[in-house]
Amino acid sequence: MALQERTRDTAPIAVPDTTAEWRGGSIRAQLWVLTGRQIRSMYGDTRLALFSLLQPLIMLLLLSEIFGSMANRDDFPHGVRYIDYLVPALLVTTGIGSAQGAGVGLVKDMDNGIVARFRVLPTRLPLVLVARSLADLLRVFTELLVLLACGTVFFGFRPSGGVLGTAAALLLTVFVIWSLIWCFIALAAWLRSVEVMSSIAVLVMFPLMFASSAFVPLKGLPEWLQVVAKVNPVTYAVDGSRRLALGWDLGLGVVGALGTSAVLLALAGFVAAKCFQRAPNA
Amino acid sequence: MIEAAGVCKSFGDVHALNGVDIEVARGKVLGLLGHNGAGKTTLVNILSTVSPPTAGTVRVAGYDVTTQGAAVRARIGVTGQFASVDEYLSGYGNLVLIARLLGAGRRQAAARATELLELFRLTEAAKQPSRTYSGGMRRRLDLAASLVGRPDVLFLDEPTTGLDPTTRIALWETVEGLVADGTTVLLTTQYLDEADRLADWITVLSKGRVIASGTSGRLKAELGSRAVHAALTPDSDLSAATGALAAAGFQPRPDPERHALSTPVDTSADIAAVVRALDTVGAELVELTVKEPSLDDVYLALTQSPTALAGAA
């Protein structure tokens, strides 16, 4: 082709390296910038931020009223007030509710033109997901702090594990929720549809929350639900969080929660990165 | 700066690209013409490392797109049909974000963002969220975003689709300025005037193949046609005029509705011959125009019968 002849005349030309210092930021710098962007866009809508903080309060009020009489039953642990039993579990279930927001958020983000831009920049794409997960984690953490504060101030939450136990329960919950956030991120990267994401989230969330020991002791559930609850990772998470907050001996709850979450985190992280790498229609 | 050889891309059974070869030298502009679905965007996606080619080798800015993607991405800018910016961030915020991802420090990023906003006349709207921008402003921001890293190679995928004429011309002038500074550009477009104005070399893509390439002038000379258009007075005999031209060796196309006819011509002597032939049958002219060959002719000629003209490349 004539074009080839022509270019051979002019090539090769040494390309002056005018922006040698701008060939892609370090991992740390990119993660910092991406996470900052994610947090700013999350709190860009203050109404959303406000309502997401109100949600755990409503749950606290409703559940303590509805299930409050549980504490009088024989199979309920003796000497434990229902509010002290409820709050550690509510940490986990509130976290799950917020974790699914990460999935919907990612799908919406993928519709935002900036993700297409990230694909043609020297951005490490998995960092976009890590930033997303960290920003969501910060959001969940804030909600949980509000929940704990309100529980303490308005509902008389005084677990026997004290401040240290409660802090440990909070940390455990945050780790479990991080792994769940990654599950929803993986689903979002794979499905790429807000509608499908939302319906799956509801489908997954409610059985996870209610077929568990979150609100009532396992023994209080019908037998078939007990079986479901025993294989439900939320049961372990709730059990771990509760044991820490109430200062009970740790048993398998904490280890089980940490172990299942770590496995889930690794798997979901891998799937999410793989799915996200693939450009739409490519 | 862009070398692609034997590029194929298949989506299952659909072959979007079938062995495309292109080369663009530094500081040159390649215009890629083609209908929707010809494979233009697919090719841009491959060249910009967004999607891997099914077969073929591609080097951009000296690096292989499949194995050295990050090095390629550090040296290219891409502006597509849809603005690839964060709608929730301001224009300034977008540019700073991109500069920081490229590795600029806080202060450098701010300086570059300010400089680009000024260049693209966005300073006034700099702090407003980009979702409040008009279509033209968004497109300018998008172009600014693709220039943050001072790319060696710029991909413009239908950059002026849906823009008003003033904005189009302003964008063309910007691109011309970049090219003058040594940027290599690959431009895809459906607008032939755009390719005509900006491109040093034009490649026509149809159904995933290159069906013609050459300078705009050469394509027009080889594939375009010059035509004479004659409108007659109402009392002139159109069929007699058509007959006279046919007898003189032309291929006239009568247009009874407008009481006019047109015929392809090659030389200026042909134009005189047309006028003489019309004169012999006493046809009075209302208007006589000569239409110079345009890329539209080339494009139509090629895309209507791509296989017949494949040799033109």
UniProtKB/TrEMBL annotation, chain A:
Domain ABC transmembrane type-2 positions: 47-279
Topological category with respect to the lipid bilayer: Multi-pass membrane protein
Keyword Cell membrane recorded: yes
Keyword annotations: Antibiotic resistance, Cell membrane, Membrane, Transmembrane, Transmembrane helix, Transport
Pfam family membership, one: ABC2_membrane
Subcellular location(s) of the protein: Cell membrane; Membrane
Regions crossing the membrane: 48-67, 87-107, 137-157, 163-189, 196-216, 250-273
PANTHER family to which the protein is assigned, alphabetical: DOXORUBICIN RESISTANCE ABC TRANSPORTER PERMEASE PROTEIN DRRC-RELATED, TRANSPORT PERMEASE PROTEIN
Family the UniProt entry places it in: Belongs to the ABC-2 integral membrane protein family.
Name by which UniProt lists this protein: Transport permease protein
Organism of this sequence: Streptomyces poriferorum
The organism's taxonomic lineage, starting at the top: Bacteria, Bacillati, Actinomycetota, Actinomycetes, Kitasatosporales
